[in-house]
Amino acid sequence: MSIFTPELERHLTFSVQTALRFGGGILASESAKLPAGGTELTGLRDYSTGDNPQRIDWGICARHDELWVRVYEGTAQRRAYLLLDTSYGMCFQPEKLMAAKRAAAVLATGILTAGALLEFGTFMPNFNLFPVLAHKQKCGNFLRFLEKMEISTEPNLVNFEYAVHAFLARKRQPGELYVLSDCFGESDSFRKDFETGFRRLQRAGFSCRLIHLINPDDRAENFVGDVDIFDQARNYQQSITLTERDLAAYQRLYDAYLESVQEFCRKETIPYARISTDSPLSTLCLTALGMPADTAKSNPWAEFI
Amino acid sequence: MITFIHPFAFIWLLLAIPLVLFYLWRAHRPQAQVVTGALWQKAIPILHPRRAWQKQRWFVSLMTQLGILLILVTAMAEPCWRRPQRVVLVLDATSSMSVQNAGGTSRFDEAKTRAQQLVENMGYVDSFAVIAVGEKITIQSRMSHDRKQVLASLEKLSAIGGNAAVDEAVSMAKSLIKAGTGGTFDQETNHVILISDGCFPLANKVLKDDTVRWIPVGDSVGNVQLERLCAERQTSENPENAEIFVSLRNYASQPVQGTLRVSWKNTSIAKSAEPQNDSKEIPVQIPALMDGGLLTQTIPLISPEALEIYAEFLPDKPEQDALANDNSSTAFLHEAFTYRVTLVTPQESDILLENALRMIPGTEIESKILKKGFRLTTEMLKELNMEPISFQKSGVKRFHVVVFDRTLPSKELLEEMANEKIQLNCLFFSPPTDSPFWTRSKTARDYVLMPWMDGLRCGISTAGVGFTGSYALTPIADTVSSTPWLFSQSALEINQNQNTAEENENFAKQAQTVEMTELTWGLNLSQGKESKDSRCVLSACDLTQSDWVLADDFPRFLQYAFDWIIQTPASEHRLKKGMETIWVPQDSFTDSNLNIPELPEKIFIFPGEDIIPMWTVLILIVCGIFVAEWYFYQRRWIE
Fold first, then answer.
1. Which of A28, A135, A179, B266 is disulfide-compatible with A24, CB 3.0–4.6 A?
2. How far apart are CA B487 and CA B490, in angstroms?
3. Quick one: closest CA in A to B639, which residue?
């Protein structure tokens, strides 16, 4: 079964247009001002050391008896990077991988529709960056690429710091950086695994966004009774008889983990979107863009799309 | 010993197979691949530690489930701690069981209910038989394991009444059990259960029998019985005077008032006699049982006729008399008569014979000694027997009987008397052997030997023909028809029908061992075809050799002989009843005491009935296990 169905294509267009109409959701970003490279005069400011002397407005200086510098401004081309977590935890569950690919497709469509340049990359087990997409007409190619993309199924764990290091080594121009991941790292703490990476990206000038992909199965709702828990990536196996009390203890930890991810993003002002693998397609497309699931109801164009 | 009432229920144990298969299937733990291994690693250490048996929880659970299944199936099989029982149920259906209880049901209905409860409680391996005692003892159901059949036989029981002997039924019940056990009677497994009110003759003996389990039914109620009604002629001097004797018995603790109504009517066979009906009502108060409970009433009566007497007690308060069947009775009074005996003897009269004749009530003796060479003539016989029956002034009959002692009229004389239709009431005592009526015969000995022995067995003393050597006197078949009235007619008929040759051999052998001294023949002289048969008694006795017999029985024998001759209702009655001289009333009602005898110390309970049904206990155990499991689960002890 193909991941990208005509229904998805329809929802892609609809959800992106809906998101852009209602502020962009996770795609929203301020235009990058280029104070030194623009041609449009936007204002004056006090001269400071290092300013180009040629931009001193001598007429104003004469009137005010101060050195004033003319400020020129122009809109730069937006650059966006979409990094997809292709670790074993994301790939061994087909529905999770499918949801991730569909979310990537939605984000890519949204980014390209917004007029930005998109660079797509995967960061586990190795970091890969694929050629730049510059126009939304290339979306079809990207979707086919996503569908045919081969992902290694070797057990591995996410090392986000390494992935960030590899990404920064490519010396890409700063821009918006979308991370699509389930946020499970090597340890049992999100902050421990992901904080350093996000901080480095922010210091490098990247505007980070986190799209958190969760699978309800990970909450182990049905794991009552005798069960062998098996984590191949960690080489961890445990035979246990789970009671509801045990399950509740685990679920508390799981919920706390999800909360810690969201709390981290809030503190670091990282736009955060959470999508669930069991969501219907329409909901998934909207939530991937950081929009509430019921946004579509308020879109008057819905019936014409 | 544990037995199971429904052993086929163990088929349900086959459910253990799918149960075990389910557990084996469930023993394969599902594998869950997760990406949150780190969280699981963090969570599991904080879970409570498992005990050793909890690690084998599935095995413990399987054993528990199998245990529950076993308990349930065992409960369905209804175990009981006893051996197979053989029970004979003796159900009292005599008249006393028709008494109504306070609840409106009869004692018999209550007994049937108890019997049905017992049968419904019987196990699969138990066997049951039902004997009902009513008019007669009947086996309603033979030994059977089929509960439905036994219940159906109980349903069929409806008739109540009669006074069959309960003790005989109990004996029959024991025999029925012993027939199936090879003659042994184990009280632990064999039971004779008597469901009765205990109101029957010999109750004390039966109820105290250790082998009889008595289940009492009914409540004690008051009852009045007309215990005895009889009538007797008072004296031989005034035989027309009679007395009616009535006794009433009150079995209640309170005195009972009522009316005793006695009525009588003439039942004389003489057509000329006028019917004589009369009645008398006497108000009576019968004392309570504590005071003896007995009331006797004697009613004098003057009547020479035979009377049928009917007495009835009518209580003022019918509720004080639970049973009405025993309030009435009928008795008969024979007609009054005397004997005039002419003793004809060639020599001095025999003292023994004369004394015996004098002992018969109302006998007047006249001796006629025949001189040597004197021959009896017709005129003399007519003179002697002129009035075979005469009446006294009081209306009492007097029969004239001629006793020939050691002499006989000649054959021609008797034929002449028969021709002239002279009725002859004669007793030929110790006749000479050259009599024309009989001949010497060896076979006669065989002919009478067996009835004589039967008589001995029945306790009837005999008197009769003496044997001379190996010969006996036998009547000539052409002239007389003989009836050995002392003995049963049926025995004689059998002897007559059997092969004579074989009889001769058999009786001849017995005759050598049995010393017969006496024999008596009743003779019907049937010479005149139109004339009424004259009954005579031929008695050939050697008094010198058999005085030990005669000393006791000779008067009674003579009375018996007279009864044979004169054919009155009294004599017929005596012939039927044997040598009894007292008028025995009708069979008295035996179940009138409706007070329940003292209850047994321990009410008998059918084995298994005293145990709380095992299935109930087992179901309770299972429920307990489920409750405990639920409780422990709530407390997180079993997880």
1. A28
2. 9
3. A243
Smallest CA–CA distance, residue A179 to chain B, in Å, is: 19
- CATH fold of A6-30+77-304 reads Rossmann fold (3.40.50)
Three-state SS string over B126-138 comes to CEEEEEEECCCEE
ipTM of the complex: 0.82
d(CA A146, CA A136): 15
pLDDT confidence bin for B586, thresholds 50/70/90: low
pLDDT digits (tens, 9 = 90+) for B246-257: 888 888 888 889
The answer to whether residues B137 and B169 touch, using CB atoms and an 8 Å cutoff, is yes
CB pairs under 8 A between A and B: 90
Q: Which residues of B touch A89 (CB under 8 A)?
A: 35
Which pLDDT tens digit goes with each residue over B121-151? 777 678 889 999 988 888 888 888 888 888 8
pLDDT tens for each residue of B541-563: 434 334 334 445 566 667 766 76
Residue in B26, B31, B43 closest to A249 by CB: B43
DSSP states of B20-52 as a string? HHHHHHHHSPPEEE-S-HHHHHHHGGGSPPPPH
Most B CBs within 10 Å, among A193, A224, A240, to test the B interface? A240
Tell me: pLDDT of B419 over 80. no
What number of other Cβ atoms are within 10 A of residue B286's Cβ?
27
How buried is residue B228: exposed, middle or buried, by Cβ count under 10 Å (0-12/13-18/19+)?
A: middle
Contact at CB, A227 and B32, closer than 8 angstroms: yes
Residues of A with CB under 8 A from a CB of B: 88-89, 92-93, 182, 184, 186-188, 215, 218, 220, 223, 226-234, 236, 238-241, 243, 245-246, 249-250, 253-254, 257
